[in-house]
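Issue: ligand-bound run for GBH - logging full I/O for the record.

Environment: standard queue, default settings, no custom constraints.

Inputs:
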Amino acid sequence: MVGKVLDKDFLWGFATASYQIEGAPEEDGRGPSIWDKFCKIPGKIAGASSGDVACDTYHRTGEDIALLKETGAKAYRFSISWSRVIPLGGRNDPINQAGLDFYVKFVDDLLAEGIIPMVTLFHWDLPNELDERYGGLLNKEEFVADYANYARVLFKAMPKVKHWITFNEPWCSSILGYNTGLFAPGHTSDRSKSAVGDSSTEPWIVGHNFLVAHGTAVKIYREEFKPKDGGIIGITLNGDGVYPWDPNDPLDVEAAERKLEFSISWFADPIYLGDYPASMRKQLGSRLPTFSSEDLALVKGSNDFYGMNHYTANYIKHKTTPADPNDFLGNLETLFESKSGDNIGPETQSFWLRPNPPAFRDLLLWISKRYGYPTVFCTENGTSLKGENDLPREQILDDEFRAEYFRGYIHALAEAVEQGAKIQGYMAWSLMDNFEWAEGYETRFGVTYVDYEGGQKRWLKKSAGVVGVEFKKYIKDE
Ligand code: GBH
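Outputs:
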């Protein structure tokens, strides 16, 4: 039995991202992002869909806030569309006041209802112009300078925001955007999928550039805004849990650790410990960039909190063959079944996602220990349901599987706190069904059903109420 281990001011709520919910891609002067462009390439997105309408949030922020109120959420994590605020993206390009005003008003509206805004500056939707102008994320000097300018514009316009996230899951933009090509801008060495890209080098360059851009924005916030505004700032990293495929094989135990290093420590080690993990250097050699003393000064120590997105776990089996130059996992296999035949968890609609709450607790403790017990905000956690999209509405609204997922994962979070982790917030993914990237609208992650055929009308599912009910068990009474 876990008791009331969470602080009174523990922040719980729900998360979304701009391109996945807003729609209105050309309204009020918004410029195109790399996702607008990527969605137009035939074959990239299930159902040939895009974020053109999505949840129509650009016209329905009032409805979204009403949903948050109904769930009792204390906080809401959302992201800003860079190309709404600076349509061309660059530091010498004009600011679009209407786009900026949209977010400023939204923050005011949230606060008026007592909901704390947690703002992500970048959730993958880079202004397309920057990609065309100078290679976007691949161009360190230009990207870092343009991102720094963009971040400063937002810090200045929204002093009421006290929780800032620089980047969402740089792993995804780097690996899925520049190795497998599954995500925008779709670079890969596989010439059947893309005319450009080098999967063996580009993701590591992009990852490095994210770190330097993050460090630069944090320096700006700490020097120019934090003294008067008093907020905190960090980066959000994704990371799946791991179990050795054969716990009695030291090579599988080592491979499981290496999997965490290739996904999490790639970014977190430089930030907390000052360099890339030795396992990555060993496998990637000079393809992994090195830190100049200037870059390192920006990156090391640049997190006020650790933002953690977490969904699932795998059994990890080491490989005996030398690593492929395009490998990004750490030369290992990720499996759903262990050597002894244990299954990691039930199937969902997402091929990569199977619930396993204990792995969440273990990973929270692994991160806490490795990085000196930092303040952690879980910035995403949630699940899809196998076949949910094919069910009639009444059944979609009765999402017991998702409700049970939240019960298990929130309990695991409380257990981790009981064992020493310093967790101060939790945002469930997602407030509502939305554009699930390459999977289009077939996969739903919302605690709210969005009727895409019926004018984007929203209906709360059963799971929407469960998050608050669960946290009530673990948060100390006021
Ligand atoms: C989050 O990423 C995103 O932040 C959010 O926008 C999204 O809607 C949500 O998940 C649900 O998908 O293709 O085999 O290499 C979750 C972390 C990490 C999950 C990468 C998918 C890809 C596995 N993602 N993973 S693979």
